[in-house]
Amino acid sequence: MTWTKTHLVGIEDLTKEELETIFRVTAAFKGILGRSVKKVPALRGKTVVNLFLEPSTRTRVAFEVAAKRLSADVVTITGSASSVIKGETLRDTALNIQALNADILVIRHTAAGSPAYLSRLTRIPVINAGDGAHEHPTQALLDCFTMREHLGDLKGKKVTILGDILFSRVARSNIWALTKMGADVTVAGPSTLVPETFARFGVTVSHDLRSALADADVVMLLRIQHERQSSTHFPSLGEYTSMFGLNKTRASWLKPEAIIMHPGPINRGVEIDSELADSGRSVILQQVTNGIAARMAVLYLCSGGSPEVLGENEDG
Ligand code: CP
């Protein structure tokens, strides 16, 4: 197992071996989270600052819980409660957080490239918790980890990502992760949200829902990311749902053992019927739970933790 990186800016930067290392460390931490004492001293004495300048429920809480399970002190700053609204630059905010003795900076920002920019300015690890439509690396890590729990090795497994691919950082990070792991990825949806240019990432582009679902082992739904769209990409939400929403009829085109995933937040009745989101084939809440162990692994490794130490002691 190898790990030499200080920052996690995107899955694009990681090798297959590094992904495997993260999955093994995630499995080790998941084992710890199943114990009666769910805490390890790995980051004792260190301070993790979560700088969330865009709304979040799952990622923010999972990073907080992950840092606490590693015994770190945690400070969370949200957009409305930071001096960014008084005109402070992102650069100054980050350098001030570093001057306040933070040891790790987790950042979510509307602007693509913000974590990469900060990683070049700071001495401390910078972890990307989602930057614009660029990447959401820890989401892809927890998604792939969850898929591996259900499907084993992802090589040759068929994953269909359905919805607003164009504006999705989750889609981009998952495409990087899944193709590195050898999965066959199809991106599906209306041509305005799933342009042919995505084929350059080594995925199949499909606008035919039936064929995109027929042989999938996984279907991952994505919501329409209105906050990143400056023009209309389909006539109405109702028309999107009638043509591309996952409903009972369309779910019947899936193999019986196929699993349904969604990174959240779900727009029930738009990209997925409520009944399917809550069904036995949905692993949506398992994804959320796995987000804690995956983020523990990233915080641990980027702060210099040895993957071997955990690998020897844990069932990876
Ligand atoms: N999946 C995800 O990033 O959810 P949040 O926006 O709630 O963090």
Record the SSE blueprint:
Blueprint: H1 16-33, E1 47-52, H2 58-69, E2 73-78, H3 90-99, E3 104-109, H4 114-121, E4 126-131, H5 137-151, E5 158-162, H6 169-180, E6 184-188, E7 204-206, H7 209-214, E8 218-221, H8 237-244, H9 248-251, E9 259-261, H10 274-277, H11 284-302, H12 307-313
Parallel strand pairs: 1-2, 1-3, 3-4, 5-6, 5-8, 6-7, 8-9
Q: Your description of this structure?
A:
With 316 residues, the chain is an alpha/beta fold. The protein folds into two domains: 16-136 and 288-311, Rossmann fold; 137-284, Aspartate/ornithine carbamoyltransferase (Rossmann fold, 3-Layer(aba) Sandwich). 39% of the residues lie in helices and 14% in strands. It contains twelve helices and nine strands. Strand 1 (47-52), helix 2 (58-69) and strand 2 (73-78) form a beta-alpha-beta unit. Helix 3 crosses helix 4. The N and C termini lie close together (11 Å). It binds phosphoric acid mono(formamide)ester. The site of phosphoric acid mono(formamide)ester (CP) has 11 residues, from helix 2.
Small molecules held by this entry: phosphoric acid mono(formamide)ester
Oligomer: single chain
Strand content: 5-15%
Spatial arrangement of strands, main beta sheet:
7-6-5-8-9
CATH architectural category of the largest domain: 3-Layer(aba) Sandwich
Distance between the termini: 11 Å
Q: In one word, what is the shape?
A: globular
- What low-confidence regions span 5 or more consecutive residues with pLDDT below 50? 312-316
Q: What is the rounded Rg?
A: 19 Å
The arrangement of helices and strands along the chain is HEHEHEHEHEHEEHEHHEHHH
How many strand segments? 9
Biggest sheet descriptor: 5 strands, parallel
- Count of domain modules: 2
Classify the helix fraction into a percent range.
25-40%
CATH topology of the largest domain: Rossmann fold
Structural class: alpha/beta
Q: Name the average pLDDT.
A: 94
Name given to the CATH homologous superfamily of the largest domain: Aspartate/ornithine carbamoyltransferase
Helix tally equals: 12
CATH class placement of the largest domain: Alpha Beta
